[in-house]
Amino acid sequence: MSENVIHFKSAKKKAGYAKKDAQSAENRRKFGRTKVEKTLDNFESKNAVTKLDDHKLDT
Question: Could you identify which of 11, 21, 32, 48 might form a hypothetical disulfide with 28, taking C-beta atoms 3.0 to 4.6 angstroms apart as the criterion?
Fold first, then answer.
């Protein structure tokens, strides 16, 4: 029966660590890039928006 005991303090800590790990991974992806990668990503996003706007039908 002792195998099924949940210690809420440790479970809460583990959940907090998982959340922080996810946030740090997102920050590494977002801020840990070179200038060329940032420029390329910016260009691709602007190009996608422009392409979408060009294909809209005028009503």
Answer: 32
User: Residue 21: inside a domain, yes or no?
Assistant: yes
Number of structural domains (the chain) is 1
CB atoms within 10 A of CB 33: 13
Indicate the residue type of 10: S
- pLDDT tens for each residue of 10-59: 888 888 888 999 999 999 888 888 899 889 999 999 999 999 888 888 76
Domain region containing 44? 8-54
In a domain, 3, yes or no: no
**Which amino acid makes up residue 17?**
Y
Q: How many residues can be counted in the chain?
A: 59
